[in-house]
Amino acid sequence: MAATDSFRLGEKKIYLETPLSSISKDYSLILPQRAAKEIVSIFGEKEDLTIYFSPNQILFETALSETNHPQIQVVSRLIEGEYPNYQEIIPKKFETKISLQANELINQIKLASLFSGKVNEIKLKIDPKKNQLNLSSQNPEVGEHESFLPGKTEGKACEVSFNHRFLLEGLLNIAAGREKGSEVILELNGSDKPGVLRPKNDETYLYLVMPIRA
Fold it and tell me: CA angle, corner 45, sides to 183 and 167, nearest 5?
């Protein structure tokens, strides 16, 4: 599953418990955002879903435990057309990589956001020699902020600016449901290329965010 608003992109892979015997080829479907939000709010995280789809519609269904009759059904129209080939913009290699504790990074970004300007900019500077991340922000009306986080770094030094709101939303998704000390990996290719956030030791989710260019 993938979604993007041109400023950031999220991709999640879900592996099925049993092989699909009724589907013999790949299918690509575009679900409206409103329908996706309804599915999240209606169905519980641990409920098993059965999905039926046609070229124009999709149906999500849970079954009663006592019978085979459906308990809840949600039907939505699908969006016509082809989804953009988003995989082309996901970098395959990175010049800089740093591993950090997710909750500590979230807290430091929240602090830095209090001093960010009108475009919600915070600056990240990775120093491989010191194995640390420097976060800074400034606002002429409020003041300046600077903090440091230790992290395991690989590659070259890098300095890049992001919208703190976009960074936080990706990090909160990664941290949700994980242990408090879980780590996140940030991968970069300089100041003008998108950055990628991934949970450590988990290849099923990635979050790509575009930088703020000077």
Answer: 35
Roughly how many angstroms between the first and final C-alpha of the chain, as a whole number? 32
On whether residue 93 sits in a domain, the answer given is yes
Is the same domain home to 202 and 103?
A: yes
CA distance 164 to 88: 25
For the chain, state the CA radius of gyration.
20
Whole-number Å distance between alpha carbons of 182 and 200: 8
Domain that includes residue 56, residue range: 32-78
What the block records as the tokens of 18 is 């049993």
Condensed to tens digits (0 to 9), the pLDDT of residues 20-70 reads 666 778 889 999 999 999 998 888 776 778 889 898 999 998 866 666 666
Q: What is the largest CA-CA distance in the chain?
A: 65
User: Which residues, in sequence order, are CB contacts of 21 under 8 Å at separation 6+?
Assistant: none
Rounded to the nearest 5 degrees, what angle is found at the Cα of 40, between the Cα atoms of 34 and 46?
160
